[in-house]
Amino acid sequence: MTGSDEVHIHPRDVANKSAKENLTKAIAMALAVENEALRLNTQTFNANRYTALSAIPDYEELKSRARAIKEDSIERLPELIATLTKAVEARGGKVFIAATKDDANNYITNVCRMHEAKLVVKAKSITSEEIELNHALEAAGIEVAETDLAEFILQISNEQPSHIVAPAIHRSRQRITALFKEHFDTSLPLDTGEDLTEFARLILRQKFLSADVGISGANLIAADEGCLLLVESEGNIRLTTQLPAVHIAIAGIEKIIPSKKDLGTFIELLAASGTGQPLTSYTNILEPPLLVPVLNLNGRSDTRREFHLVLLDNGRMTMRADTELKEALYCIRCSACMNVCANFQAVGGHAFGGECYTGGIGAAWTIGTSGSLEKGRFAELCTGCSRCVPNCPVRIDIPRLNTAIKQRLITLSGGPSLQKMFFGNFSIVGAVASLAPRVANLIAALPAVRSVMELLIGFDKRRPVPEFGRSTLVRQYREHSKKSRVQADASMSQPRAVLFADAYTNYNNPQVGMAVVRVFEKLGIATTVSATMAEGRDAQSQGLVESAAARAVKTAAYLETFIDEGSDIIVAEPSVLALFRSDYKALLCNDTLFKKLRAHTYDPIEYLNAFLSQHHRDPRTALRGMDRNATRIFYHGHCQMKTVGAGSAAVDLFTQLGFTVIQSKAECCGMAGSFGYKKAYYELSKNVGDDLVRQIRAAEVPGTQLVIVASGTSCREQIGAEYAGRKIFSPVELLDTLIRSGE
């Protein structure tokens, strides 16, 4: 496809009954048309954000403070609405509480009619997109001029925003040039961003000078003094709110916070989290109606300024009463969750989005403001990688929110699909296949079987089916333990470790589990292997929350017995480690047990680092005999490992051992467990993975050996698909291989 606009999918024009089909079409469109610009722009924002946040010494404290303010605000919302109304009206402004989007549109339209407005200039406002304000005003014969450059572009192209902060992030400079030349009679080359900005500025300047009414949104509103916070990079908000005599601000009721003094916390977080700027170019704190002269540049004879604040409910109070969707009300619209999301980087908000709200946080907002659960089906694009969690400035657990939505969609559909039942019960599939693994592997590889699997459960036949081990980890350990005894160092207290035999490691990757056992034995760590438990990761990933919770309760009780006996739990699969350290908090509903598990579960390399440090042992000496001929390692860390604090463990150890470690800069491998196997998401998964593959290829140097290491099972599978026949190691596997080859 080319850059033609006719391929765009507009979710607001899509019937609910075809939501699944339209999501698939939107993904295909975005990958074909918008992918290159999206990837460049979101990754630039993301890289800038990391730099900006590193310069904030009290970042974690700021996040906690922002979260506390928002929690307090939503709890006290009715009270704050009353306080805000009183403050605005005391200055002569007017406040209107709009229960629905129609109420808001009718009120704003009537204000414009009352002033005989012919032209309205409008600053960027996601809330106005939510209520489709432009359509309402245009239907009343009132011209609306979008004054934000990106919104100006979208208005010309008749597209919806694809991003909260940068609505036209999906358009390349070349496509914008073509758009302007198609819609405007100009001989200017418009070959650079500066050319395009100057051209748009000349058009918009005339709109500002002629406007009768200005409409803005609000990033936040302080109830005590009735002041609005509006942050921007172009200055158009200042012109919108100050040139026309009439200013209408529209904002969701969740934007209200108690005090003006609290704005500082959010000012510091907003710009850094959104675009990676220490501060936006223009930070406006307004207390309208403004006490400045009316200029009447449009030839009118207005003598005083007028201000209307439209506070929109449109489902927000219902969200507030919903124990799960309530979490979305804490969002401050910074877009950090979008910019860090690998799937959003690939397809943007025209696929990963609803009627106006996009990205991981967008499904909850779409459902809450539209009243339609089906419209939030794009929540399925959230893989639960959790990369957004530490990057959210108000600590929203977005993957948990989307898991709850997936669960509701299952209920809406009358029960889980065959696909969800298959992937959500992998522990059962693995147990059955392990009875005759060679037969299972042979059957699963047959073309006819692959076609049936694709038809019945959507398992894409282009994906190799992971092979089951010829013998499970539990069986291999039993045989190994008969022959081997750990020779502990008598000079130190002997630690006791239990390797958790999760389904992935036990059935598919027993070699990884046995590598843990052998390396730990090398260091004198007494290690046993647990029974295989269905811990709930597979069920949770599909939205089967009740099943995941039941499995979590059983697994936690089982592991608690080992912990109480003085053992630590070693978890070879990163997604399961994240389950224990993070997701079990909600699944268990037992904070004491959750904290116990979190404190005693470890990634193998993380545990080794702590062990060596605690006993003041040099890794080179402790792991003597290791073969160090392979000096260059390319390492890709699992998303969830980074989130739960174990992301740097392997890099730290291999660096100490004298290896040159090249770290992946990819946010995600794109596989995301079962996600990459599903036919509907195969192309998206591969597209995301291309970033990682390109980095590996760039690290290859002719004449030298590059060892590829990835901590997660799905990461290794994604990389392995591009490097057929080449061993992709887990960190502990490589460690074990090097030790054994050097002995």
User: Any idea how many domains?
Assistant: 3
Q: Number of helical runs?
A: 34
- Global mean pLDDT: 92
Poorly predicted residue ranges: 1-17, 488-493
The count of strands amounts to: 17
With strands numbered from the N-terminus, the spatial order across the biggest sheet is: 1-10-7-4-2-3
Portion in strands: 5-15%
Helix content: 40-55%
Structural class: alpha/beta
Distance between termini? 57 Å
In short:
The protein has 743 residues and is an alpha/beta fold. The chain has 3 domains: 258 residues, NagB/RpiA/CoA transferase-like (Rossmann fold, 3-Layer(aba) Sandwich), CATH 3.40.50.10420; 39 residues, no CATH class; 270 residues, no CATH class. The strands form 4 sheets. A 6-stranded parallel beta sheet has the order 1-10-7-4-2-3, with helices on both faces. The protein has a 4-stranded mixed beta sheet with strand order 8-5-6-9, sandwiched between helices.
Task: Give the topology.
Blueprint: H1 19-54, H2 59-75, H3 77-90, E1 94-98, H4 101-114, E2 119-122, H5 126-131, H6 133-139, E3 143-146, H7 149-157, H8 173-183, H9 193-210, E4 213-216, E5 220-222, E6 227-232, H10 236-242, E7 246-252, E8 256-257, H11 263-274, E9 282-286, E10 306-312, H12 316-320, H13 336-340, H14 342-347, H15 362-370, H16 398-412, H17 418-423, H18 426-433, H19 437-444, H20 447-457, H21 473-483, E11 496-501, H22 503-508, H23 510-522, E12 526-532, H24 537-541, H25 545-564, E13 568-571, H26 574-588, H27 591-599, E14 601-602, H28 604-614, H29 619-622, E15 632-636, H30 639-643, H31 649-656, E16 660-663, H32 682-699, E17 706-710, H33 713-722, H34 731-742
Parallel strand pairs: 1-10, 2-3, 2-4, 4-7, 5-8, 7-10, 11-12, 11-13, 13-14, 15-16, 15-17
Antiparallel strand pairs: 5-6, 6-9
Helix pairs in contact: 2-11, 21-23, 23-34, 25-26, 25-27, 26-27
